[in-house]
Write a structure and sequence with these properties.
Blueprint: E1 2-14, E2 17-24, E3 27-34, E4 45-50, E5 56-58, E6 68-79, E7 83-90, E8 93-100, H1 101-106, E9 114-119, E10 125-128
Antiparallel strand pairs: 1-2, 1-4, 2-3, 4-10, 5-9, 6-7, 6-9, 7-8
């Protein structure tokens, strides 16, 4: 599980659906949540949680609809028969992505390569700190 400490910048809510906007380091992230905790408000300290298999990888020049898209560098990878566990750094942040080995090979990824990493906003959970 990836965990990023962040500060809530804004919360937009319509009915039971909320989008929480938060900052971690130089990154601006979004989390789409149902029935958000009322204590989640501007300035709150939170952890943004997302599973390794929810982190998408893309080549640097790809355009995506995902709002949580950042550039990082592959610093480690463990390539298995079916899956590849890829460690990426972006500034002072380290996250892990699990992709299929086919995807690793299709994207022609390698250690020390820059990649785009993305998380759909509905896949980011939030925990108050």
């Amino acid at each position: 599980m990836n965990s990023l400490r962040a500060t809530v910048d804004a919360v937009r809510t319509v009915d039971a659906l909320s989008i929480v906007y938060a900052s971690h380091s130089t990154m601006k992230l979004q989390s789409m949540l149902l029935d958000v905790d009322p204590t989640v408000r501007i300035g709150a300290s939170v952890e943004l949680l997302f599973k390794e298999n929810e982190v998408l990888l893309a080549s640097i020049d790809s355009r995506l609809s995902a709002r949580n898209a950042f550039v990082g560098r592959i610093v480690d990878a463990h390539i298995g028969i079916l899956l590849a566990s890829v460690t990426i750094t972006a500034g002072d942040t380290t996250i892990t992505s699990i992709v299929t080995r086919d995807a690793w090979e299709y994207l022609d990824l390698a250690i020390d390569q820059e990649v785009q990493w993305c998380i759909k906003s509905n896949e980011v959970s939030l925990r108050l700190c």
